[in-house]
Write a structure and sequence with these properties.
By secondary structure, the protein is of the alpha+beta class. The protein folds into two domains: 94 residues, no CATH class; 127 residues, Tumour Suppressor Smad4 (Sandwich), CATH 2.60.200. The protein is built from six helices and twelve strands. The strands form two sheets. A six-stranded mixed sheet has the order 1-5-4-6-7-10, with no helix packed on it. A six-stranded antiparallel sheet has the order 3-2-12-11-8-9, with no helix packed on it. A hairpin with a 5-residue loop joins β11 and β12.
Length: 253
């Protein structure tokens, strides 16, 4: 009997250890999807600061968790906001609040893509220094069409610094925070490297190549391999680092 109890105890301990490690990895992946360094998720207090900064715009809002009773409401709300930022439902947010390890595993290892919080895709984008496009092509608000034949590619800003803008592409163009890129971002843009990716048109096909960026380039939510041009088509989505900086591909005749 004693040996059986010891065996059961050992199995429970092993399961707990595996669950703990898997949860830590899931947290790492969640922060990476948000365009933040994964290691941030492992540092107590600082990980909460970064989470609140991402979801509310001010990391010090985490101190509100010290207020009795209100902290219960805030702890649930921040998890619901996190769920919404990944395109999940309010019910999923309650799952994060009440069954955190399980739903963190789903969020981290699942296919959910970070779309940006209400703050990061709204107020934050509006408060940034306006980004610049270093080409002489027409940058007017011309909606893309998806009918063949088409000769000029367009990028429609779906989220982030270029949200709502249409950028015309006719030649090779790089994207990143450095000022010498064809499409440049403010220096403090999270998840975007100095020279992040390259857009190339060859034989009527648009290719996206990640320039060994720190947080990766994503096509329709899937990270592409660095230094390997990948063909894309109208309707596809390109994301830099995370879905916070996302473009929809279009073409105009």
């Amino acid at each position: 009997m004693e040996e059986a109890m010891t065996a059961v105890s050992g199995v429970i301990s092993l399961f707990s250890l595996v669950l703990c490690v898997a949860t830590l990895v899931a947290m790492w992946k969640i922060y990476a999807k948000m365009g933040r360094p994964g290691w941030v998720s492992l540092i107590p207090l600082y990980n909460s600061y970064v989470l609140f900064e991402e979801l509310t715009g001010n990391g010090w809002n985490m101190l509100l968790l010290l207020i009795p009773f209100y902290n219960i409401y805030l702890a649930v709300k921040i998890q619901i906001d996190l769920a919404h930022a990944f395109g999940q439902s309010t019910v999923f947010g309650w799952g994060l609040a009440l069954l955190m390890p399980i739903f963190q595993l789903i969020l981290g290892f699942g296919s959910a893509v970070y779309r940006g919080s209400a703050y990061s895709t709204g107020q934050k984008a509006a408060s940034r220094v306006p980004p610049t496009v270093n080409n002489t092509d027409d940058q007017r608000q011309i909606p893309p069409t998806f009918a063949e034949p088409m000769h000029t590619f367009l990028l429609q800003g779906a989220a982030g610094s270029y949200q709502g803008r249409y950028l015309q592409l006719q030649s090779d163009m790089s994207m990143g925070r450095a000022s010498d890129n064809g499409i440049s971002f403010p220096a403090n843009t999270p998840g975007v490297s100095s020279h992040h990716c390259m857009l190339r048109v060859y034989n009527g096909t648009l290719y996206v190549e990640d320039l060994n960026s720190s947080y990766g380039t994503y096509i329709n939510g899937a990270r592409i391999q660095a230094n390997q041009p990948v063909p894309v088509k109208p309707g596809d989505r390109i994301s830099l680092g995370s879905a916070r900086e996302t473009f929809l591909i279009g073409r105009r005749s």
